[in-house]
Task: structure prediction
Amino acid sequence: MSNEPEMNFGDVIREARKKHGWSQGELGERAGVSRPTIARVEGNNDVTTATIAKIAEALGLKLELK
Result:
């Protein structure tokens, strides 16, 4: 059993963005959304599935809904 807390969606996006070396603004430009939208996603605030899909695509992540 791991003592590490489970990563939430915002954490996954933030880590992927940092691995690319991108600022929130740069990711926003690449995904076609605003920098405040990226901040909302990383803060685990409500955003649309379409927005999440754009961000995931820009980062090369696979979006899987269960």
User: Anything to note?
Assistant: The chain has a mean pLDDT of 91.
